[in-house]
Structure formats: structure tokens, C-alpha cells
From TrEMBL:
An example Gene Ontology biological process: regulation of pentose-phosphate shunt
SUPFAM superfamilies per record: Phosphoglycerate mutase-like (SSF53254)
Matches recorded under Pfam families: His_Phos_1 (PF00300)
Family annotation (SMART domains): PGAM
GO molecular function: fructose-2,6-bisphosphate 2-phosphatase activity
Protein name listed in UniProt: Putative alpha-ribazole phosphatase
Gene Ontology annotations for the cellular component aspect, listed alphabetically: cytosol
Gene3D superfamilies for the chain: Phosphoglycerate mutase-like (3.40.50.1240)
Taxonomy, superkingdom: Bacteria
Site entry (Transition state stabilizer), positions: H149
Key words of the record: Hydrolase
């Protein structure tokens, strides 16, 4: 397959166990170092283009890689992280305490229950799957790297592996981790980590 997905690097978080979603958080210095390591690992590969989310953590990460590989960078909001609406920036424990039914419902059905004003993972899949399919159709023997977010990658992986949506949060997509759709006809996937 010509498309590889890459989660952006480590970010400056507002706190642990906080809903981030589309908050526009910057990369940390660790995240910038991860980008340089990824670029070094891709040197000599057949990468012809980098695409990325328009959120700054993905944009900066992708720009470091694209500059190092001397290949074009295309910024596209379709690759944005899931929107968590009014939960963004809030501690998960606070949301669970203040809205226990909504918190539990989303955990039970992440592809069917939206936080207020946000998206569910089914919405994310509907947004990104056509874009992935279009990129795969451009196969010319060279790879496209898409720098995106854990929620986007988890949504695609659940769909392609035919996993139940309630297993989505158990998928480990580390910072600067690659995910590449497998060639297997059943649509499996392979996750690799870098730095």
C-alpha cells in the first residue's frame, strides 16, 4: 500500500487524563526530536509526499520530516483529530463525575455517541476513509506519509481490522508511531513504533 499513517510526536499537554481532541496544542521538544528521528528512519525510502492535519502539533511534526526528506507537504483539515466538543480541555474525572451517563455511554459506544458539540468515532471514519481511499488510488510505487492523530488512526484500524468499536481505546498508538494498512485481503493492520 502506498499510504503510511504516523501519529504526531509528544505534545505539551494541559494535564494528564485531560480530553484534548482538537485543542491546538504545540509539540514539545521531545516531539521535535521524535520528528527528527522519524525523518532519519525514512531517509532513502520512497516517500514522495507528506500530508498532515492542520492542527499545529501535526503540522510542525510533518514540516520537520518534509524538510528533511525534501518532499512536498500538504496540509488538510480532513486529518484532524476527533472533536470532543465541550469536553475538550476538561479532566476526564470531572466529566465522569458531572455527566456519568454520557461518559459511560460514550465508553460503551464510541462510534455512536458524541460528546456535546463534538464527533463520535464513526463520524471520524466517515471523514477520513474517503481521503484514505483516494490516496491509495494514487499508487505509483512511492509512499505517502499522513501525519495525523491517535483517534483517526484508531478509527481506521478498527474499520480495517473489523474490530468492535468498544475495543478502540485498547489500541496503543504511541506518539511518533507508524501504522500501515496491511496487504492482507481481510484488511488487517500493522503498527510500528519509532523513537
Amino acid at each position: 500500500m502506498p499510504v503510511m499513517f504516523l501519529r504526531h510526536g509528544h505534545v505539551e499537554r494541559p494535564g494528564e487524563r485531560v480530553y484534548v481532541g482538537q485543542l491546538d496544542l504545540p509539540l514539545s521538544e521531545t516531539g521535535r526530536q521524535q520528528a527528527r528521528c522519524v525523518a532519519a528512519s525514512l531517509a532513502g525510502n520512497t516517500v514522495r509526499e507528506i500530508r498532515c492535519s492542520d492542527l499545529s502539533r501535526a503540522r510542525e511534526f510533518a514540516a520537520i520530516i518534509a524538510a528533511s526528506l525534501e518532499c512536498p507537504l500538504v496540509v488538510d483539515p480532513v486529518w484532524r483529530e476527533i472533536s470532543l466538543g465541550s469536553w475538550e480541555g476538561r479532566a476526564m474525572a470531572d466529566v465522569a463525575r458531572e455527566h456519568p451517563d454520557a461518559f459511560q455511554a460514550r465508553g460503551d459506544d464510541p462510534a455512536g455517541v458524541r460528546p456535546p458539540g463534538g464527533e463520535h468515532f464513526g463520524d471520524v471514519l466517515a471523514r477520513v476513509l474517503p481521503a484514505m481511499t483516494a490516496l491509495q488510488a494514487q499508487d505509483n510505487g512511492r509512499d505517502i506519509v499522513v501525519v495525523t492523530h491517535a483517534g483517526v488512526i484508531r478509527s481506521l484500524c478498527c474499520h480495517l481490522e473489523h474490530r468492535p468499536w468498544d475495543t478502540l481505546f485498547s489500541l496503543n498508538i504511541p506518539y511518533a508511531g507508524f501504522w500501515k494498512p496491511a496487504h492482507a485481503p481481510q484488511g488487517g493492520c500493522r503498527r510500528d513504533t519509532t523513537a
